[in-house]
Structure formats: structure tokens, C-alpha cells
Amino acid sequence: MPKLAQRVGRAKPSAIMVIAEKAKQLKAAGRDIISFSIGVPNFLPGEHVYAAARESLLHDSGQYGSNRGADALLDAFLKHIEALGFSGYTRMNLSIGIGAKQVLYNLAEALLDEGEEICFAAPYWTTYQDIADIVGARAKVMHCGPEQNYKLTPSQLDAALASKPKVFLFNNPSNPTGMVYTGEEIAALAEVLVRYPDTWIITDDIYNSMVFGGIGYHNFVFARPELRERLIFVDSLSKTYGMPGWRVGLIAGPESIAKALTTLNSNHITSLPEVITAAAVAAFGGPQDVPQAKCAEFAGKRDIVVAALSAIPGVVCPRPQGAFYAFPDISVAFGKSHHGVSINNDVEFCAALLEATGVACVPGSAFGEPRAMRISYTCPTAQLAPGLARITEFFNELT
């Protein structure tokens, strides 16, 4: 039998989906499961989004769309990023994809040749390492532990960029930690970036509208505008608008990058469907009451989660400032056992927790930090306190 391409052997199933599937199986078997595993917002967009989709279906052309994205969507995105602080961009600086994940994959294909280096901080979103592996790039990981609030420091970035990686990939607010960089922290990192003009900068900032406590969203371009010529901003409808299944991702960056992604689109996805485009335009341009209300709700849930985790002896959880994740250091449990089940690492901890309590969390090693686990607190509010109570009881029963 003919062999598969080598790159397929480098592709791995999502660690997050493995946990989610296990939880789904247990639930189907009758177990009472509370899932803190998948990073989905668990709310639906406003009615105006559905109204726009229905209206689009009434006038569907049935034709191919633009490889770059429909003008109406590009214009709506331009207004969105202008409100964030990006100015001077035009349609030629933009391109679309089937979700931010596909956009990131396209960027890897466009920017990285086999063997070239990409650097990013850990904890990282699992897909960063996976995409690097698939395209044959070398990943340089900068480890940022809970002792530094999971945030990259200028000295770490300077050391990593000294080897002149082709790409620096940055995530703010962070998945999996929920940490958000202040304007001062972003400015300090930007000062490092200007000294390394041969490195592309990707800011994967799809949680930019989910920031708590007035910290605000900041980007390197705001601090040092000259970085604009090599910085690509990635955004998505998924988290902000409760639309992960609609699969709309976008970039704003140099015209050469937008053109490259548009050309790649012409060779695989072609375009977004008309109905999806109409819904996306309505999401960006319509009332923002739903995402604003959900951001406030997540901030309240964050407080509940952090309070519960901080009360567990030995557990360290830097306070998230955005998104909808908490990333506690659970290494205090390593070397102990739960009702005879040994726990020596994060994977064993999460497996034992799920089996014993029905609470599903994702091991931190999936994100490059094996001392921790990720809690996604987008579950129904009624499940939040019981789920946290089960985690607390689990820790109390360790011997």
C-alpha cells in the first residue's frame, strides 16, 4: 500500500478534544459530568445575527465569493479594528479564513519554510506546537511559569529573538491562562521587537474584547507603529460573539501577507459562504449588548473560580484578567494518591479527577506547562460552584 505523507505523521489529535470526548462518553453512560474542558463561550449571538442570516438566505446567489472576503465583511472588520486602536488599514491589508485556527495554519504555510524557527511562550494554545510540527518548523518555547504570572518578560523575548527566529507568535489575552498584558508590559516587549527586524510578529488576540477590570486591550503596534510593516493581527468571531461554529477568522497586516493568504484561500477554501458572511457583518456592526453582558458575566465567574482555587492549600492560581480560563498550578498533588489511585503528573491528576468526581479539566502539559490544568468556566452558572466544590473535595481526599 502507498504511504501517507510524512507531515501526516506529525499531526496529532487535539488533547482538548480527547478529554472532551472522554467526558462525553461518561455522560452518555449516565455519569453526572461537569465539563470545564472545552474553550467554547457557551452563549449564542444576538437575534440580529440570525435575522441577517435568514435575510441572506432569501437572496442567496449560489455563487462563489471573494477569496479575500466580501467587501461588506472587510469594511465591518475595518471598523472593528479601528475601535480597538488599529488605524490606517484598508481592505488590501485584510484576509479571511475558516476560523482563526485555519488562518494561523495559512500563516504558517505562508511564512515558514521547513526547518525555520518559530518562537512562542508557554503556556501556549495547543495548536501552536501542532501547526509548527505539521509544517516542519522548529519551535522555540519560552517557559513562563506561575511565579511570573504566566507572562513573557522582555529579557526572555530578547534571548529568544537573538537566534533570529522567522516568526514570533504572541497570544493576548491568553488561552490557557486568561492573563492579559498591560499597556506598559506590551510597550516593554515592543521595545525588544524593534531591535529584531527580521522576525515576523503574529498577535493571536481573539479574546481582545474579553478583558476585565479596565486593563484594556493593547498591541505592539500601538506602542511602536513601525512594527506594523511586519505584524499580523489575528481575530475571530468565535469567542466574542458566541459563534465558534460559524467559523470566521480574519487578519489585518501588511498587504503582502494579506495577498499571500488570499492566494492560499483561492487554492483551498475559496471563500466564506454568503450566509456566514452576512451573519459576521451583523455581529461586527450590530448591537454589542450580548458580548458586553457576557464579558461582565465571565468576570464574575472568574472571581468565583479564583476564590475557590485560592482556598485549596498548595494550589497557586494567578488571577486571570480576561478570556474565560483559569490555569492553577496543581503540582502540590503530585506524589499523592486518591483512594489508592496514584497521581504523579497532570495527566494522571485530570484522569483521576474525571473518574472520581465527574469534573473534566485539561492537563496543563497539553499547553506546555505540566504543573497545571486548564479550567474553562463557561459552563452554566448553576454548575460552577458544584464543580469547584468537587475539585476542592478531591484535593481534601488526597493522601
Number of helices: 14
Number of strands: 14
Would you identify the regions where 5 or more consecutive residues have pLDDT less than 50?
Answer: none
Q: For the terminal residues, how far apart are their CA atoms?
A: 52 Å
Q: Radius of gyration from the CA trace?
A: 21 Å
Query: Overall 3D geometry?
Result: globular
CATH architecture assignment of the largest domain:
3-Layer(aba) Sandwich
| Average pLDDT over all residues | 95
CATH class of the largest domain reads Alpha Beta
Strand line-up of the largest beta sheet? 2-8-7-6-5-3-4
- Tell me about the largest β-sheet: 7 strands, mixed
Q: How many distinct folded domains? A: 2
Describe the structure.
The protein has helices at 6-10, 15-28, 47-58, 71-84, 99-111, 126-135, 154-161, 183-193, 220-223, 255-267, 274-285, 289-310, 346-357, 381-396; strands spanning 34-35, 94-97, 117-122, 138-143, 167-171, 200-204, 231-236, 249-252, 325-326, 336-338, 341-343, 359-360, 362-363, 373-376. The chain is of the alpha/beta class and 399 residues long. The chain folds into two domains: 6-44 and 290-396, Aspartate Aminotransferase, domain 1, CATH 3.90.1150; 47-285, Aspartate Aminotransferase, domain 2 (3-Layer(aba) Sandwich), CATH 3.40.640.10. The chain has a seven-stranded mixed sheet with strand order 2-8-7-6-5-3-4, sandwiched between helices. Strand 3, helix 6 (126-135) and strand 4 form a beta-alpha-beta unit. Helix 7 (154-161) packs parallel to helix 8 (183-193). The radius of gyration is 21 Å and the shape is globular. The termini are far apart. The mean pLDDT is 95.
